[in-house]
Amino acid sequence: MARKVVFSSGASGVGKTSVCALSGVGLSMLGKKVALLDLNVGYNCLSQQLGVKAEFDLLDVLYARCRLKQALYPVPNYSQLYSLPAPRQVAGKVDIIVLHRLLNFLDENFDFLLIDCPAWIELPFYTRIFGHGEVVLVSSTDKNSILSTNNLAGCVCGCECAYMRLFINNLSPKEKKNCVDTEIAKWLGLELFDSLLAWHNPLDLSNIQSDLCAESLKFAKKLL
């Protein structure tokens, strides 16, 4: 049975998709078979960051326009990592029964299922679908992002997720030195999963840089 981990955030633009992708890369490098499920309809950023060129997506599977194996793309350079892209256009609703069947297949054939969930309001809905999975809330050090994360954490507490942790992204070196990530976690009352310094270059994970490689392994080991 696959370990299910949902990545979400209280606000957009905080790097949630990058954290999800890095975690998947790290787990695959540790020999785990990982499926990345992108539910950010209309964006499809996860597959793009990983260098996946997709012809089919999640809605194609749910509407039987292709088989699941046709839309589950191997990620270049990572033999154990697969990506199921989000629809590039908003067209049609997600059939919950069919989505459950899809998840059952992934559950039986992978070690980890990492879900890049839409920000904020959809998370309680998706945590109910995925059952007793884990949730990683991604936030920056921006005040509005922290407050949105606090509101979202309160909503998630009412769902049946097994475990909820906090990831602080885009830290400055000074903030890291002053343990700002730890202070934010204490204020939110959440366990700190990890944090990452601000990354100034475009995050292209199709050819992962050595320093990001070390970070991805560190994230992965905390999911084991």
Mean pLDDT: 84
Q: Helix/strand-derived class?
A: alpha/beta
Share of residues in helices: 40-55%
The topology string of helices and strands comes to: EHEHHHEEHEHEHEHHEH
Largest sheet: 8 strands, mixed
Q: What's the end-to-end separation, in Å? A: 14 Å
- Principal-axis shape: globular
Q: Kindly give the count of domains.
A: 1
Our estimate of the beta-strand percent is: 15-25%
Work out the helix count: 10
Strand order of the largest sheet: 3-4-2-5-1-6-7-8
Q: Determine Rg (CA atoms, Å).
A: 16 Å
What is the CATH topology classification name? Answer: Rossmann fold
Q: Return the CATH architecture.
A: 3-Layer(aba) Sandwich
Search tags:
Rossmann fold; eight-stranded mixed beta sheet; 224 residues; alpha/beta; 40% helix; 8 strands
Short description:
The chain contains 10 helices and 8 strands. The chain has helices at residues 16-29, 45-49, 58-62, 68-71, 96-109, 123-130, 143-156, 173-177, 180-188, 210-221, and strands at residues 3-9, 34-38, 73-74, 81-84, 112-116, 134-139, 163-171, 191-197. The chain has an 8-stranded mixed β-sheet with strand order 3-4-2-5-1-6-7-8, with helices on both faces.
Q: What do you see in this structure?
A:
The chain is of the alpha/beta class and 224 residues long. It has one domain: 3-Layer(aba) Sandwich (Rossmann fold), CATH 3.40.50. The protein has ten helices and eight strands. A hairpin with a 6-residue loop joins strand 3 (73-74) and strand 4. The longest helix has 14 residues, at 16-29. The protein is globular and about 50 Å long.
